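ok so i was messing around last nite and threw this chain in just to see what happens. nothing serious, just curious
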Amino acid sequence: MPVVADGSIAGPVADGRMVPLVIIDTTTRPDLDELVRLHDHLSPGDVTYRWGQVDRDDDQVALSLQFIRPIEVRATLLFSIEHEGIIVDAALNIRALYLQPGRPGDRLKHDLHRPKILIETPDDDFRDRWEGVVIQRLTKVIRRQKRMPRAEARQLATEWLDQSRSLSRLRMPT
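result:
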């Protein structure tokens, strides 16, 4: 599923921490639109999930979702570490992600009250591997863009990740 926009929402969920949100293009997936619509009117649903790195692509991370209730639906979200790594990192560390159906051009700021669902991801073995995956990829990107030695690029990647995490640890009053 293509991610067309991202953002984050703070509030009573996750003790006031910023929970990442992804808006996915559901133009060809009316079943996902229906899932979110039903979820808004029924009791919370059930979902299983799995994070992983895409084979033979050091920039792609996937989140596979299998919704069981209120209806059965499968979806796989693809994220570029270079462009959306901050969203993946926040989702892994906060252990949650908002999913909102949409279309290309949609943004969270255009309609804050559009239906969305919270997907909690409490534990996954990928979380343990993520640190190495993200640092390795960011180091490669920094080396390509800044033309610097590997050790310096790795240090810069580590600092960027630390700064990103310090922002995601901020809490809003609940």
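not much to say yet. The mean pLDDT is 90.
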